[in-house]
TrEMBL record:
This is Glycosyltransferase 2-like domain-containing protein. The keyword Nucleotide-binding does not apply. It is found in: Cell membrane. The chain crosses the membrane at residues 228-246, 252-270, 277-295. It comes from Marinobacter guineae. SUPFAM superfamilies: Nucleotide-diphospho-sugar transferases (SSF53448). The keyword Transferase applies. The lineage of its organism: Bacteria, Pseudomonadati, Pseudomonadota, Gammaproteobacteria, Pseudomonadales.
Length: 309
């Protein structure tokens, strides 16, 4: 067996069939298997997955990292491909994977690909996620996500897989440990898959970033190595200081803090998306940056118990 695709699921009945069929179509010429590890869905996810996947396992008590580890333990392939249930492979992904499969088998690399935004009318997709993707090129990076990750099985097992104690951020932790073992972490923009699950409204956007932010606060080492976490905390503290100064009627100080907060927000927006997106697009992006920084910053206050003090 050349390749094992491992997909964790939870109530994905609307996407799972499309995702699994996309895998079958993309690698029909390569010996492969599809392993679905379900977290206890109460819809038709597992029944639908069994019609296409080679193996469906139910593990209702595992974290998402634990689900992937279970799938890897059953995998027969020499290469593990980790996908999410709402990520659809493309012809471009298949072509790149096929041309580089020998390299994946020979090199000690963890390789991640792009998660493209589907065509949609949503402003969040147009002015937040799409500009982020355009700024990424194929290169060595600090980490790649598990929504589109490729790694040799022997290297994965040697590194003891994902840390099952982590609720989120298990991909970052895994890449850090792989780098310590001598692996390169590579991002390849040609390995493009389509992520159907990007949020399309403000509520789901904030919820997503709050959840992702938890990974930065699961240990002090994570906190102090995350520029996003530190910047988010600084921004939130600046905003809180502004509000407090208003209550104290120290207006000169309030204006000064408001100016600093505005500079921080503009800097973050330009750093996050340096591409030209127009005045309207920049205004939308800055508004989303404001929500993003607050969501990430509040991950700290809402998850202090996760810090290993």
């Amino acid at each position: 067996m050349d390749v094992s695709f491992i997909i964790p699921t939870l109530n994905e009945e609307h996407e799972i069939t499309h995702t699994l069929n996309a895998i079958r179509e993309s690698v029909a010429h390569i010996s492969h298997e599809i392993i679905v590890v379900d977290n206890g869905s109460d819809d038709q996810t597992t029944e639908m997955a069994k019609e296409i996947a080679d193996l469906v396992i139910v593990e209702p008590t595992k974290t998402v990292g634990g689900l992937r580890n279970v799938g890897a333990s059953y995998a027969k392939g020499r290469i593990l491909v980790f996908n999410d249930a709402d990520v659809r492979l493309t012809k471009q992904w298949a072509q790149k994977f096929s041309s580089c499969m020998v390299q994946y088998l020979e090199e000690s690399d963890v390789v991640g690909g792009a998660l493209a935004v589907p065509e949609s009318p949503y402003l969040i997709h147009k002015y937040w996620f799409k500009p982020l993707l355009r700024n990424k090129e194929s290169k060595v990076v600090n980490y790649v996500g598990t929504g589109n990750m490729i790694v040799r099985k022997d290297l994965f097992l040697e590194c003891k897989g994902f840390d099952e104690r982590l609720e989120t951020g298990e991909d970052y932790d895994f890449c850090v440990r792989m780098k310590k073992n001598g692996a390169r972490i590579l991002y390849d923009s040609d390995l493009e898959a389509i992520h159907i699950g990007y949020p399309h409204d403000l509520k789901s956007f904030v919820r997503r970033e709050f959840w992702h932010g938890k990974g930065d606060f699961q240990s002090l080492s994570n906190l102090f190595t995350s520029k996003t976490a530190l910047f988010s905390l600084l921004f939130v503290l600046t905003n809180i200081t502004f509000i407090v100064s208003l209550f104290l009627e120290n207006y000169y100080f309030s204006y000064l803090i408001l100016f600093v907060a505005g500079i921080l927000l503009l800097y973050f927006s330009l750093h996050k998306t340096p591409s030209k997106i127009g005045v309207y697009g920049r205004a939308v992006h800055m508004g989303l940056s404001f929500l993003y920084l607050w969501a990430r910053g509040l991950s700290f206050w809402g998850n202090l118990k996760l810090l290993k003090l």
